Amino acid sequence: MAMSIPCYASFGTKLQDPLNYSNYNGVEKVKSIIKKTVIPSVSSPVESLQKGNWVKLICGASFEDLVDIRNLSLVYTLAGVDCIDCAAEASVVNAVNEGIEAARALVPIRRPWVMISVNDDEDLHFRKAEFDPDDCPWDCMRPCEKVCPANAILQKGGVLAERCYGCGRCLPVCPYDKIRAITYVRDVIATAELLERDDVDALEIHTSGREPSVFRELWTGLGNSTANLKLVAVSFPDLRDSTISAMNAMYSIMESSSIHCVNLWQLDGRPMSGDIGRGATRDAIAFARKLASAGDKPKGFLQLAGGTNIHTVEGLKKERLFQTTTIHEPSRYETIPSTLHSPNALIAGVAFGGYARKIVGRVLSSVQSHHRPARVEDFPEQLLQAIIESLALVGTVKCYNIQKQIT
């Protein structure tokens, strides 16, 4: 199990220390793979959006384990992601940036954008499970512990709040109905202060899309703090017949106060489910298909999330939506001109969350120490394993040719 530390902990000045590698062969292999595979394919985040090979790592809007966040950010920066999305907490933002700089100290790779996530109202991504372990019957089989994908439930304790990201899988399996979900809304003033930092590049607003008034309240409350952002994303579910009207309403609110940056619509298919299996990605792909062909949607890039995993690009290819600028009708094989009248790809890219954390987390958990925060770069063989796992996922979108580099 990965070690957890309080969310206020930090690696601090340790990033300035000389790296003490015990196995230089592993480190050199990592550098070689990144320089030959990732560096030649790296483009700016905006170019990635336009070409349809944008990749975002979702650390989790409620995930606050700083050790994992720092190491995940290091690994996926080296893998070439365009953006790292994290909780809107200063300590979490610091951990992301520490991971990015540690990666860039290994290989001079371009810096991904750092995004913080907030909500305008109650949202699944902004909740924590909670229960009193003293209330649990002594003979309980603890199914909650078995189903938790974040290792956030201790065998002889309750929920580790910093590791719980709100997936809710523990709630229905408790045989005694002892587990509660505690929801919260990020403070708008604290969010505005974070957005004014020079190491925060983007904002994501999670919304149901059903209440324009609460979206307007949040957007207005942020004031001028959005002025220097590079991107604003809105994450929302499929609202069926109301989807386009909700998008237009939200875009009008943002446009009324002069949005100055790129905007993106995150299509949240099946939230926090990518690690479950192949079928989890179907809802996001269906959502993308629907919006890609809609002619009356507001401007902005479209990006998949919610259930995304190693099978997502395969599904997009079957729908002929992967890195294409035109809509294809599978039944007649006709091409309909893009409603965007633009060379931009119809689908800008994919965000990976639970699945991305799972495949690399298996490696990270093996290097954690109970004595001090573990830096994955201090374990070159494990770093190499983590890089191979991350490249296999990111490479589905970036189209890396990694096989001959890792053999």
UniProtKB/TrEMBL annotation:
One of its GO terms (biological process) is translational initiation. Coiled coil: none annotated. Keywords: 4Fe-4S, Iron, Iron-sulfur, Metal-binding. GO terms for molecular function: 4 iron, 4 sulfur cluster binding; ATP binding; iron ion binding; ribosomal small subunit binding. Residues 127-153, 155-184 form the 4Fe-4S ferredoxin-type domain. InterPro entries: 4Fe4S_Fe-S-bd, 4Fe4S_Fe_S_CS, Fe-S-bd_prot_LdpA_C, LdpA_Fe-S-bd, PSI_iron-sulfur_center. Gene3D superfamilies: 3.30.70.20. Transmembrane segments: none annotated. This is 4Fe-4S ferredoxin-type domain-containing protein. It comes from Solanum lycopersicum (Tomato).
